[in-house]
Amino acid sequence: MAETDLGQMSGPLTGNKRTAYFFQPEICNYYFGAGHPMKPIRLKLTHSLLVGYGLLPTLDVYRSHLASHEELAAFHTDDYTSFLNRINPTNAEELAEQCSTFQVGNFTDCPAFEGVWGYCQMLAGGSIDGAVRLNAGDADVAINWSGGMHHAKKNEASGFCYVNDIVLGILELLKVHQRVLYIDIDIHHGDGVEEAFYTTDRVMTCSFHKYGNFFPGTGDVKEQGHGPGKGYSVNFPLQEGITDEAYHSVYKPVIARIMETYRPGAVVMCCGADSLAGDRLGCFNLTLDGHAECIKYAKSFGLPTLVLGGGGYTPRNVARCWAHETGVLLGQTMDDLLPESPLREYFRPSYKLRLGVLDDLDNQNSHDYLHKNLEEVMEQLRQLPGAPSVPFQNVPPALLPGRASAGGTGAAGSAAETVDPDTRDLAAEVDAKAHAGEHYDVSAAAAATALADSGSVVKLWDGSQEAGGEDVEQLQVQAASGAGDA
Questions:
Q1: Are 9 and 293 in contact (CB under 8 A)?
Q2: Contact at 8 Å (CB) between 354 and 320?
Q3: Of the candidates 228, 295, 238, 230, which has an alpha carbon nearest to the alpha carbon of residue 268?
Q4: How many whole angstroms separate alpha carbon 219 and alpha carbon 451?
Q5: What global pTM score does this model have?
Q6: What is the pLDDT of residues 70-114, one digit of tens each?
Q7: Quick check: 127 pLDDT over 50?
Q8: CA 230 to CA 385: how far, in whole Å?
Q9: Is there a contact between 169 and 308 (Cβ–Cβ < 8 Å)?
Q10: Nearest 10 degrees: CA dihedral of 14, 45, 334, 351?
Q11: pLDDT score, position 17
Q12: Which strands, in side-by-side order, build the sheet including 180-184?
């Protein structure tokens, strides 16, 4: 495949040594229930396209590990993770009080489906793995399309999200990087991630989302953080029907100013495909190329980047989006005609990669509306004192062993610990220890326990196993019984 001229829109991607791709085949088999918008089968469709386009040989492909209680406890409470480990459709009535407390069950948007704990372990494990890989210097980009569950709270499920893998990945990155930038281009506000870091300057959250009579109801431009985190939560509210050109007219100036002012050491992106035109739950009018340009632009700054999934409720279009964006991150040109694959019939009748826009959806974002919000965000960023710093201390151990390659630096297994402390590069070993205003961090005891209990990443040798032919709903019903044992 020929390389794409990435300079046409945002300049070439720089410093891209390797791209790591984390995938757990069993996660595709979970089933949220009849009629539920969240369909994990979208991950199988995405993987099928990556196989069909021949992208897997250009990726470092890994089977993500199952996140342990201790790893999830880096953010979530013990009683909540213990509940997730117990809940299933047969005991939901018995645990009705806890279901109400933790907002899980048939009366919520987060049902107690069979195997919910294994599902949470898989998606969280992939994001933690990706962060460890980036910290090790073994990849410049790490992809986990099963992640991006940005609504989950510390002790509560929300918006189809049970555990917040994004927060867990950011906490891992903070062990090495002074500052982390989180960018959210899902149509819904990234409220769970913002809430987790609302009072710290170690993480800047930046969300572009539909606002006004739309879930979750948060994300006003005036929500800017609190205490030490004041000014480090950036929100850009949008209205329905926004187009590529209008979106980029505010996205690029904001991201460029953040990079200049905040100077992050790493970037985490939630790339929800529900901001595409024609999504089942969305109301934006972005094309595949317009959506991908946001990732391309963020990556053009040359920082270690963790790329995660998120929303997206028209499975065939989600797969198109994330497969295309994988190709963009690799600098690959992808034919518009979809390749032959066992799941190609899901993409009928067009069998094309790219999508059009909705001609009957008006753009409700006037120039004045966008300009007013852009001015307010720019003023917020202008008032920041500059890039906050962190005292030098030893880097905490990575949660999982055996992650770094022989050439990795600062990874799990901590090669830096064997280096003379008077000669090693301390700038690469910035501590992620909690300071005033930061609520969540991994204790040494929890990290030590996780090191003892968890396994290592296993590289996938076969990416070609695909199911075929059936309708999405039927395929997930058939797979659901097996998923509970995963």
A1: yes
A2: yes
A3: 295
A4: 37
A5: 0.81
A6: 999 999 999 999 999 999 999 999 999 999 999 999 899 999 999
A7: yes
A8: 11
A9: yes
A10: -160
A11: 58
A12: 233-238, 203-210, 180-184, 266-270, 305-308, 141-144, 19-22, 60-63, 458-459
| Domain limits, the chain | 6-483
pLDDT of 43 reads 98
d(CA 211, CA 219): 7
Structure tokens at 112: 């107690």
Q: What is the mean pLDDT of the chain?
A: 83
pLDDT tens string 39-82 = 999 999 999 999 999 999 999 999 999 999 999 999 999 999 99
Question: What angle (nearest 5°) sits at the alpha carbon of residue 209, between those of residues 300 and 257?
Answer: 40
Q: Which of 162, 133, 137 is nearest to 148 (CA)?
A: 162
Q: What is the distance between the alpha carbons of residues 450 and 254, in angstroms, rounded to a whole number?
A: 38
DSSP E strand stretches across 239-359: 266-270, 305-308
Euclidean distance between CA atoms 71 and 33, whole angstroms: 28
Q: What is the b/e burial string over 118-136, where b = at least 16 CB atoms within 10 angstroms of the residue's CB? A: bbbbbbbbbbbbbbbbbbb
For the domain made up of 6-483, give the CATH fold. Answer: Arginase; Chain A (3.40.800)
Give me 209's structure tokens.
């989302």
Task: Find the catalytic residue in 47, 65, 69, 151.
Answer: 151
Q: Is 150 a catalytic residue?
A: no
DSSP 108: S
CA distance 75 to 203: 15
Chain-centroid distance, C-alpha 125 = 12
Tens of pLDDT along 430-476? 333 223 333 333 333 343 333 334 333 333 333 333 333 344 454 45
235-249, 335-349, 430-444: segment of lowest average pLDDT: 430-444
SS3 20: strand
